[in-house]
Design brief:
By secondary structure, the protein is mainly alpha-helical. It contains 10 helices and no strands. Helices cover about 75% and strands about 0% of the residues.
Length: about 230
């Protein structure tokens, strides 16, 4: 059953004799789930912290900025590796939380800068003069006009998270068997590359295409919100 691609099975079979096309398609689920969940979680954290830091300034801004600097200094893959090795019984949820904890810093800086640039705008001052409180100012007037660049950064970040998750799986510190992901498939295929190159080629191709697709999607979103960049 260890054969390469054929007309009946365009991706061939894996080492267990299973149709490899089905295995590669199934392997996309953890990568996509983690990529989207981590990006959504990090975006939520970044919007909250960036909004508070930019609006209030002072000690709030200083605290958030120093915390951001500390986490920004932690390498994404290396930091996740250290944490995941310390907790070997982790799963999809734990990996998502770890990657969120390491992936919110850049978006927080962008959000803070946008809020600082918007909070003194005329329409915000007009709303403040009518008696609007801080919560209303932040949610109704500042957030809608400051969040767009952060969303663009988040879209561009999905591909980075997917490639990071695959790297962790490939290194053996991410998801573990019997889970199925592109990183685990690449890890299993490296020892058989010379005999069965399709086991390495197809997951790598799907991974590269997925990461590239999200990068292009992020570029399209950026161009849509800023026509001058087209």
């Amino acid at each position: 059953s260890r054969v390469g691609p054929s007309p009946a099975h365009p991706f061939g079979f894996d080492l267990q004799g299973c149709d490899f096309l089905g295995q590669v398609v199934r392997g996309s689920r953890p990568s996509l789930v983690i990529g989207l969940a981590v990006t959504a979680g990090a975006l939520l954290v970044a919007v909250l912290l960036g909004l508070l830091a930019g609006f209030y300034g002072g000690w709030v801004d200083a605290t958030v900025s120093r915390l951001t600097d500390v986490f920004f200094g932690l390498p994404f893959v290396l930091g996740a590796t250290v944490v995941l090795v310390a907790f070997p019984d982790h799963g999809l949820g734990a990996m998502t939380l770890v990657l969120v904890a390491l992936g919110w810093t850049t978006m927080t800086r962008v959000m803070r800068a946008q809020v600082i640039g918007v909070k003194d705008a005329d329409y915000v001052q007009a709303a403040r003069s009518t008696g609007a409180g801080p919560l209303r100012l932040m949610t109704r007037h500042i957030l809608p006009n400051a969040v767009t660049p952060v969303v663009v950064v988040a879209m561009l970040n999905v591909g980075n998270v997917i490639s990071g998750e695959a790297t962790l799986d490939f290194l053996g510190v991410g998801l573990q068997y019997p889970a199925l992901s592109w990183g685990l498939q690449l890890n299993a295929a490296q020892a058989y590359f010379l005999d069965f190159p399709h086991l390495l080629a197809f997951p790598a191709l799907f991974l590269c295409a997925t990461v590239l697709s999200f990068i292009l999607l992020g570029d399209a979103v950026r161009d849509a919100y800023d026509p001058k960049l087209r």
